[in-house]
Amino acid sequence: MIITCGNCRTKYQMADNLIQKDEFRVRCTKCDHSFLVKKPGVGSELPPHIKKRASAITAAQKRYPDNPNCKVISICNQKGGVAKTTTCLNLAASLSMRNKRVLVIDFDIQSNLTLLLGHKDARSFFDVINAQDDSLSSYLVKTEHNFWLLPSNSKMALLSKKHMPNENFEYMLRDKLLEVKADFDYILIDSPPSGDFYTLNALLASNAAVVPMPCDYLSLNGVSHIEGMINVINEKINHKIDMHVLITLFEPGNTVGKVVLNQIRGKYGDKVLNTMIEKDQKVQESQIVHTPVVFYSKECAAARQYRQLANEIETLFPASEDLAQASGYRY
Questions:
Q1: Confidence (pTM)
Q2: Nearest to residue 169, comparing CAs of 79, 265, 53?
Q3: In the Cβ-directed half-sphere of 176, how many Cα atoms lie within 13 Å?
Q4: In the chain, what are the domains?
Q5: Contact of 195 with 161, CB cutoff 8 Å
Q6: Chain centroid offset of residue 275 CA
Q7: Does 49 have pLDDT greater than 50?
Q8: Pairing status of strand 11-13 against strand 272-278
């Protein structure tokens, strides 16, 4: 969670697991100003500097007009271990199998998506920003699975520390993606298990958010946190995000899982995607050989379901059929 002193504008990053109350008072160590902070999702307010610039046009937007035909989707949940990276990888592969031009962004400090695709130590978004004038396209890597990757590396941990004090820090990813949106049908962002600088950047760059969650109570709480962030963004900024819940690691024979599934559907209704991804040993096997399960074991349950998910995503968020013909990007 990012909080900003209302007096001197100093920003602080607070670990979400330390927040136990809906409202609490903090004191700025720089100017000694005391102010009230609300937990995200509970009458939340975005930092004042973000609200003030809600309609501001950045230099990148003037240089690169947005391309509404490209759909940007964040794969996010505050809780880890819910199959975010697996979903991002296999959804990208399944969309590419449908002749869609796909870019995946590894925006997680852990770099698991990058590791699964065999590109350890490649240049990351941090390197793009640090180079200042370099084009994003020169940092993209073509994978052997017919989609593109912007890798992550250990330097990504420095991104928030170096750039959070800067103006428009929350739009860094959105502005760089404007350079390449004309060249892709779908951009998928693998977000870290938190609600901080990285997730805020991912959401503000996105048209939609897919929130993977197993049928357990703790994952439900993680969805509520992301929903709170999205609601605040939708209300306070001229930027709408369409959120959908994806059931993952589902075990059809698990009675508790079925009970939680009914609770999820009761709470989120038509926001719950029709596709459910079952727990499948073939997914773990595919990770060992650095291959999406949709290629590793095409007829296993998870592979069939990820292909079904791609069909559902394409129906919900159709990309322009003319994009591939209009683009001059190497693919």
A1: 0.80
A2: 53
A3: 26
A4: 2-39 (no CATH), 62-322 (3.40.50.300)
A5: no
A6: 19
A7: no
A8: unpaired
